[in-house]
Design goal:
Blueprint lengths: L2 E12 L6 H22 L4 H15 L5 H23 L13 E4 L4 E4 L4 E6 L2 E8 L11 E10 L2 E13 L7 E5 L3 E5 L5 E5 L2 H18 L4 H33 L4 E5 L8 H4 L5 H20 L3 E5 L15 E3 L4 E4 L5 E3 H16 L17 E2 L5 E4 L4
Parallel strand pairs: 8-11, 10-17, 11-12, 15-16
Antiparallel strand pairs: 1-5, 1-7, 2-6, 3-4, 4-5, 6-7, 8-9, 9-10, 13-14, 14-15
Helix pairs in contact: 1-3, 2-3, 4-5, 5-7
The protein binds zinc ion (ZN).
Length: about 400
């Protein structure tokens, strides 16, 4: 069975903030910025070259600092400079890149997680120090996972160590795929047995509700700290609410797909300019949330040994899944094929095409009986969409 690696990040909030942390953050930031400038001026994109050419000088300047801080600073500087070059090529970056955040990258020499004693040991210029963290219930699920790198981060909420955990999982050969079409207010699934499941998410109402709340605050309080605090509070509530929704949705989808062993999603990384996700769905926010939901589906699926494939999203909701002809609108959200007279709800068409593309991608011939069975002729109406879920528990 092929195996895959799952990576997830868990946050560990520190109970107290140790002395000298301010200095560590500012020293590290200074080093990263020095390295970015060096990379920028000498056009260095290789981590090894950057390290080789700067290490001796930095070592001399910061003799107390554990050497691995210099390694991770090089890694961060390389990544930041590469990201900057990429943005610049697209005309989206000006001037020189600057690192302003209070973030320190830690490798396995710089920190050690001690789950038993709820502490993290950190190497600092003053030697190893032991930091107590606030235990969270979800930390327990990483018990048998491998600890990778980590990030020491300061936010207005406190200081955190964000640890990347990884796990090898066996993913079996899928016998079929469940096609998943993510939409603003519903998720539609095309099952290999010809059925469709639509889950109404109410995501649009949730978003609209918070949008209205934020507007009200913005109108009432023009400036000041209170305004900022309230906006942040509701922003966080919205994120938590959506996150919770995504986890429940992902659980449901993975459960439905488990017996087939495969899930097909749209590859959303390459469709920045697609009409479907920009004009109709008002842009970046939704793409962000689709990606977020997809990543949750992906890791939950892998944990259960279910394969996830990403298919080309072009025209998934405008081509006929039966004959490949072009579909025309035929009333509210209904699409009709002028070639073979097939007619269906656009979400049904989307999820169906996604499933068929996964089969072709996987090299499985698409049989004619792969077409939905439970339909009135070629027509799939709202009533034929099975199991209209409004809860996802
Ligand atoms: Zn057709």
């Amino acid at each position: 069975m092929p195996s895959e690696t799952i990576k997830l990040t868990a946050k560990f909030k520190l109970k107290t903030i140790p002395d000298g942390l301010d200095k560590l953050f500012s020293t590290y930031r200074g080093i990263v910025n020095f390295l970015i400038t060096y990379a920028f001026e000498n056009n260095v994109t290789s981590f090894y070259r950057l390290k080789k050419e700067t290490y001796k000088g930095l070592r001399k300047e910061y003799p107390e600092l554990p050497s691995h801080y210099l390694y991770t600073a090089c890694q961060m500087a390389t990544a930041i400079f590469k990201g900057y070059r990429k943005r610049k090529r697209k005309g989206k970056a000006k001037g020189k890149p600057v690192f302003k955040k209070e973030v320190i990258m830690l490798d396995d020499h710089l920190f050690k997680l001690d789950s038993e004693n709820k502490t993290i040991k950190l190497s600092t210029p003053n030697g190893r120090i032991s930091l107590e963290f606030c235990p969270a219930k979800y930390h327990e699920k990483f018990k048998d996972w491998k600890v990778g790198q980590a990030w020491l981060v300061r936010t207005p909420k406190g200081v955190f160590v964000n640890v990347v955990f990884s796990k090898e999982v066996k993913v079996r050969e899928p016998s079929a795929f469940v096609g998943v079409d993510l939409n603003e207010n519903n998720v539609t699934l095309s099952l290999p047995n010809g059925e469709f499941v639509q889950i109404i998410t109410h995501e649009r109402e949730i978003r609209t509700g918070y949008y209205v709340k934020r507007r009200r605050i913005q109108r009432k309080l023009r400036t000041g700290r209170k305004r900022k605090e309230l906006l942040e509070k509701y922003g966080e509530r919205e994120r938590n609410r959506l996150n919770d929704l995504y986890h429940k949705l992902a659980n449901k989808i993975v459960k439905l797909a488990e017996k087939y062993g495969g899930i097909a999603l749209e590859d959303l990384t390459e469709i920045r300019d697609s009409i479907k996700y920009s004009a109709e769905m008002n842009g970046r926010l939704h793409r962000w949330s689709f990606r977020k939901l997809q990543s949750i589906i992906e890791y939950k699926a892998k944990l259960r040994g279910v394969r996830v494939v990403f298919v080309n999203p072009a025209h998934t909701s405008s081509l006929c899944p039966v004959c490949g002809g072009k579909l025309s609108p035929n009333g509210h959200r209904i699409l009709k094929c002028l070639n073979c007279r097939f007619e269906a709800d656009r979400d049904v068409v989307g999820s169906w095409n996604i499933r068929l593309r996964a089969l072709r991608m996987w090299g499985v011939p698409v049989p004619p009986e792969g077409q939905p069975m439970k339909m009135g002729g070629w027509k799939v109406s709202r009533n034929d969409v099975y199991g209209l879920y409004t809860s996802y528990g």
